[in-house]
Amino acid sequence: MKAQLGGEEGKHKFVLKTPKGTRDYSPKQMAIRERVFTAIINCFKRHGAEVIDTPVFELKETLTGKYGEDSKLIYDLKDQGGELLSLRYDLTVPFARYLAMNKITNIKRYHIAKVYRRDNPAMTRGRYREFYQCDFDIAGQFDPMIPDAECLKIVHEILSDLQLGDFLIKVNDRRILDGMFAVCGVPDSKFRTICSSVDKLDKVPWEEVKNEMVGEKGLSPEAADRIGEYVQLHGGLDLIEQLLQDPKLSQNKLAKEGLGDMKLLFEYLTLFGITGKISFDLSLARGLDYYTGVIYEAVLLQQENDHVEDPVSVGSVAGGGRYDGLVGMFDPKGRKVPCVGVSIGIERIFSILEQRVEASEEKIRTTETQVLVASAQKKLLEERLKLISELWDAGIKAEILYKKNPKLLNQLQYCEETGIPLVAIVGEQELKDGVVKLRVVATREEVNIRRENLIEEIRMRTSQL
User: What does pTM read for this prediction?
Assistant: First the structure.
């Protein structure tokens, strides 16, 4: 055993590291994380969502054939001589499986959990092999675009609340894309693969995407050029109206349906007062196979260079859309449950906030302790233990130093370092008088408080902080 761990005999060096694409989170990082999670969960709850959880691994066949070209990124677990299993790749497919399995036709739920992708991670940009997803979905048969509009409102609320800077939510519809592909002369069999090429337009220039379509995917250059004319368009209601008049698109049943719904969506978003941050963008494709209607993606815009005319996107921080066929894939009778949802890209958001905290050198508290129970003289451990027990039982967050006779200076220094706002000091004189000396760390002000009023006083003082 010793040899394996790199003892004297075995010269093999055991490297202490986390696996590729994963990371640990320090208390400081977790404090930032918790803040973000709280903001997101509060928003989901404000919109009336319930919460569920599902296993971290699923049957391999549950995940097969749901992700298009991304299927190669699924982690398969080693065959243990039983069921063939894979780690979940997202939270949407397990949600669909859950609905079909439990015959649920109507639910509004959120789910926050880790997912796994065998990606080549760019960890600096918040991309990992193990990462959290925060999903909100509305399942059920409802009137068109009302739940879809609420999902976009949620994205708007969360990104505004987290104060990440300027953002833009791009919106499109799979039906508009498919209609566009059809009128541009893309054969049906190539829709999905051309779709994943278009999806790269936010990262690489049109010329490269065109070369991929023509060179690798065998599309005719004419069809590619026709697609090029459409995918460079973006706007709002005016663009929707323009496309409804488009001689080619308006003749396509799918595109017409999609544009009609898009118009309705923009009317609802206008009522929510958020259209200033929304752009109808024909280049938005979203790679996943299961989307059937509206799709959207939120990107943060770079503010560093004020002199740049067009703000640059620093990557996607939320995405989602409508997937009306996914639950039906799992239902033995093929019963469909229409769904629309959004996933908040917590890792990317977290990377940004973490960098910001580093840059500003803001001090982040990693504990919530309200008061340190301290003593000014020796032989008062019993009194400290009695007092701290009273505080804990009253629900006060309190600590003591684990020494029999700590120096007062060390106790006060500990508060400075960890951000504890109050110190309750027991001393012989105070014990005789039935009081406790309460010290405010920031101002060094001290007051004697009667023992029976101490809990009330601490509550009052910490509620103001």
Answer: 0.88
Would you say 339 and 326 are in contact if contact means Cβ atoms under 8 Å apart?
A: yes
Instruction: Give per-residue pLDDT as tens, 10-65.
Output: 567 889 999 999 999 999 999 999 999 999 999 999 999 999 999 999 999 999 87
Instruction: Specify the pLDDT at position 308.
Output: 46
pLDDT (tens digit per residue) in 331-348: 999 899 999 999 998 988
Q: How many CB atoms lie within 10 A of CB 146?
A: 13
- Cα 343 to the chain's mean position, in Å? 7
Contact 341, 138 (CB under 8 A): yes
Contacts of 124 (CB under 8 A, 6+ apart): 351
Q: Which residues contact 145 (CB under 8 A, 6 or more apart)?
A: 261, 264, 265, 268, 294
Question: In three state form, how does the secondary structure of the chain look?
Answer: CCCCCCCCCCCCCCCCCCCCCCCCCCHHHHHHHHHHHHHHHHHHHHCCCEECCCCCEEEHHHHCCCCHHHHHHCCECCCCCCCCEEECCCCHHHHHHHHHHCCCCCEEEEEEEEEECCCCCCHHHCCCCEEEEEEEEEECCCCCCHHHHHHHHHHHHHHHHCCCCCEEEEEEEHHHHHHHHHHCCCCHHHHHHHHHHHHHHHCCCHHHHHHHHHHHCCCCHHHHHHHHHHHCCEECHHHHHHHHCCCCHHHCHHHHHHHHHHHHHHHHHHHHCCHHHEEEECCCCCCCCCCCCEEEEEEEECCCCCCCCCCCEEEEEEEEEECCCHHHHHCCCCCCCCEEEEEECHHHHHHHHHHHHHHHCCCCCCCCCCEEEEECCCCCHHHHHHHHHHHHHCCCCEECCCCCCCCHHHHHHHHHHHCCCEEEEECHHHHHHCEEEEEECCCCCEEEEEHHHHHHHHHHHHHHC
Average pLDDT of the chain to the nearest whole number? 91
d(CA 35, CA 362): 15
pLDDT in tens, 58-90: 999 999 877 776 778 899 999 888 899 999 999
Which amino acid, one-letter code, is at 146?
I
- Positions of the chain with pLDDT lower than 50, given as ranges: 306-308
CB 338, CB 144: distance < 8 Å: no
**How much is the CA Rg of the chain, to the nearest whole Å?**
29
What's the pLDDT score for residue 362?
Answer: 84
Note the pLDDT of residue 307: 47
The confidence score (pLDDT) of residue 285 equals 87
